[in-house]
């Protein structure tokens, strides 16, 4: 099964580049930046990633490790590492989240350093590895809307076709970080601005329904007009929300290993194996890694294995992973012609 799944071309639609930073790479970057090495000892780092009770303790560790970044080369190396892992796993197209507010707005780093390092690695990854990577800029939902608007302002030169630093790689905006209590509707001004930012407009997605209940999903769809829901598994607690997602065929980017490691399933009522439940209800589900250096990379393979134990709902494991791979392109922001080519 793992070889079959790795050989299947697929798109990754929910991947935080900061969550792909391994303890070994964090240590190497800390060393070249002259930081306190004890704080980034790889063995301690790996141990700290072994157990999380929920999203926030994970985000604290994630924030600490992301704090090693200083230079363009750091962002280049982090991205190129991920693209190599993606190529090994049969990922041919990736829409990759990055969190400018995790790195900038503290006088340590400029937006330019972040985006230049990331886009240079994407260019090399396309040439050398055959992985087509694009970027989705995420707002931190537990920070102010004013700061989110400032991030968009900083990103503006990179989205203007006539600008000397224009990049076609900046594809959309998203929203991540601690969800409970940080409702999506607050960010309506930032999403309204983003939708008209690039000439072709930025695509809009948001994390909703990971730890927040199904009403966070409804609010993100209504107020932010998102095209895709990141996680969204708690829709299973409200049949009306599931029906809405099915009717509009709004894709969900589910991350089963992340949900498992952050204990989403036992703490809420959406039940085990959300992917299987959602597929059988007709939701357009995709399966993704979220933060592979903290959780696991081969999520499609893991979902297939979970299914393999007994053939659920008439899906054989191989059909199941084929459906997930096809959905990953269908739910992506590639052109309709490119989608047809992957059918
Ligand atoms: N940032 C990185 N991983 C995340 C997740 N699973 N939920 C919200 N924000 C995140
Ligand atoms: Zn995520």
From TrEMBL:
One of its GO terms (cellular component) is cytosol. Gene3D superfamilies: Metal-dependent hydrolases. Residues 9-343 form the Adenosine deaminase domain. One of its GO terms (molecular function) is metal ion binding. The keyword Phosphoprotein does not apply. One of its GO terms (biological process) is nucleotide metabolic process. Its cofactor is Zn(2+). Keywords: Hydrolase, Metal-binding, Nucleotide metabolism, Zinc. InterPro entries: A_deaminase_dom, ADE, Ado/ade_deaminase, Metal_Hydrolase. NCBIfam families: aden_deam. This is Adenosine deaminase domain-containing protein. It comes from Emiliania huxleyi (strain CCMP1516).
């Amino acid at each position: 099964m793992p070889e079959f799944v790795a050989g299947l071309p697929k798109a990754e639609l929910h991947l935080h580049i900061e969550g792909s930073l391994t303890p070994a790479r964090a240590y190497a970057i800390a060393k070249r930046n002259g930081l306190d090495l004890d704080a980034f000892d790889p063995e301690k780092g790996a141990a700290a990633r072994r157990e999380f009770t929920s999203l926030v303790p994970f985000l604290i560790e994630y924030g600490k490790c992301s704090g090693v970044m200083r230079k363009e080369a750091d962002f280049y190396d982090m991205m190129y590492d991920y693209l190599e892992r993606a190529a090994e796993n049969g990922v041919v197209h990736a829409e990759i989240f990055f969190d400018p507010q995790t790195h900038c707005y503290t006088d340590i780093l400029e937006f330019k350093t972040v985006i230049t390092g990331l886009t240079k690695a994407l260019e090399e990854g396309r040439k050398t590895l055959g992985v087509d990577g694009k970027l989705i800029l995420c707002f931190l939902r537990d920070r102010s809307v004013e700061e989110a608007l400032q991030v968009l302002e900083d990103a503006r030169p990179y989205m203007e076709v006539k600008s000397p630093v224009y990049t076609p790689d900046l594809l959309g905006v998203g929203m991540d970080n601690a969800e409970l209590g940080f409702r999506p509707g607050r960010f309506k001004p930032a999403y309204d601005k983003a939708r008209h930012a690039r000439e072709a407009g930025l695509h809009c997605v948001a994390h909703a329904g990971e730890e927040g209940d199904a009403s966070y999903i409804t609010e993100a769809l209504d107020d932010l007009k998102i095209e895709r829901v990141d996680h969204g598994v708690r829709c299973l607690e409200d049949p009306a929300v599931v029906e809405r997602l099915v009717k509009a065929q709004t894709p969900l980017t589910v991350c089963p290993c992340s949900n498992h490691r952050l204990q989403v399933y036992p703490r809420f009522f959406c039940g085990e194996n959300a992917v299987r439940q959602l597929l059988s209800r007709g939701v357009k589900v995709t399966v993704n890694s979220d933060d592979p250096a903290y959780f696991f990379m081969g999520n499609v393979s893991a979902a297939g294995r979970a299914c393999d134990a007994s053939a659920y709902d008439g899906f054989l494991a191989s059909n199941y992973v084929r459906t997930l791979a096809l959905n990953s392109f269908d739910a992506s922001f590639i052109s309709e012609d490119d989608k047809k080519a992957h059918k």
